[in-house]
Amino acid sequence: MNGPETYLLDKRLRAIDVISDESLALLHHHIRQRKLAKGQFLLTEGAICRSIYFVEKGYLRTFYNKDGKEINLNFSLENSFVTDLKSLQTALPSEFYIQAGEDAIVWEFSKQKLLDLYTQSAEITSLGRKLLEMLLLEQEEHANLFKLYNPIERYQYILEQKPQLLQRIPLSKLSSYLGISRETLSRIRKR
Question: What is the CATH number of domain 4-121?
Answer without folding.
Answer: 2.60.120.10
